[in-house]
TrEMBL record:
PANTHER family: EXPORTED PROTEIN (PTHR37089:SF3), PROTEIN U-RELATED (PTHR37089). Residues 39-181 form the Spore coat protein U/FanG domain. The keyword Signal applies. Keywords: Capsid protein, Signal, Virion. This is Spore coat protein U (SCPU) domain-containing protein. InterPro entries: Spore_coat_component, Spore_coat_U/FanG. Residues 1-36 form the signal peptide. The keyword Magnesium does not apply.
Length: 184
């Protein structure tokens, strides 16, 4: 039987120790790099633009801001009748706080001589629009009128109206349709 061999003595042993130490050092360095953290940043931004939003609570609820209704009166009635725009609750108007909101109202379907009229066939009744309940600040046809508001989330159009019944008006259902244009 051959005699067991012993590892050679001399220069080979320090080389093995150096190689083992190098491998241990590389393994340790690799472990540090694998768990290393890198930091970077990114930008976050948002823009809030000034403006207004007209929205409907339910699809198909119409695009009418509301209605002016002077009521029902006998043809013999004479005098001035007033009305306020009754808002359509299905439509809301919201603006960014501080927006300068303006409206224009056209002459309607029966404009004549610069005056808006309700019509029933060929019969007419002239009426005027005002931006105040006291009927002192008229809204001229096509004029840009400021809308003042205190709650940007609950804006109501300031439209009031007055018509004068002459006391001998032809009976009928009088109507008109006005278009409001909002700008900001």
């Amino acid at each position: 039987m051959p005699a067991p061999t012993q590892p050679p003595r001399g220069p080979a042993r320090p080389r093995r120790r150096a190689l083992a130490a190098l491998l241990l050092l590389l393994a340790h360095a690799g472990a540090q790099q694998a768990g290393a953290a890198t930091q970077a940043s990114f930008r976050v931004s948002a823009s809030v633009t000034q403006g207004c939003l007209v929205s409907q609570a339910a699809p198909g609820s119409g695009n009418d801001f509301g209605r002016l209704d002077f009521g029902r009166h006998p043809s013999s009635t004479s005098g001035t009748i007033s009305a306020r725009l009754l808002p359509n609750d299905a439509i809301t108007l919201d603006c960014t706080p501080g927006v300068k909101l303006r409206m224009t109202v056209d002459g309607g379907q029966h404009l004549d001589g610069g005056l808006r009229h309700l019509g029933a066939g060929q019969a007419r009744l002239a009426y005027r629009l005002y931006r105040d309940a006291g009927l002192s600040q008229e809204i001229p046809v096509g004029a840009s009128v400021p809308i003042d508001y205190s709650d940007a989330g609950a804006i109501a159009l300031p439209i009031n109206a007055a018509l004068r019944l002459p006391g001998n008006q032809t009976a009928g259902r009088y109507h008109d349709r006005l278009t409001v244009t909002l700008s900001w």
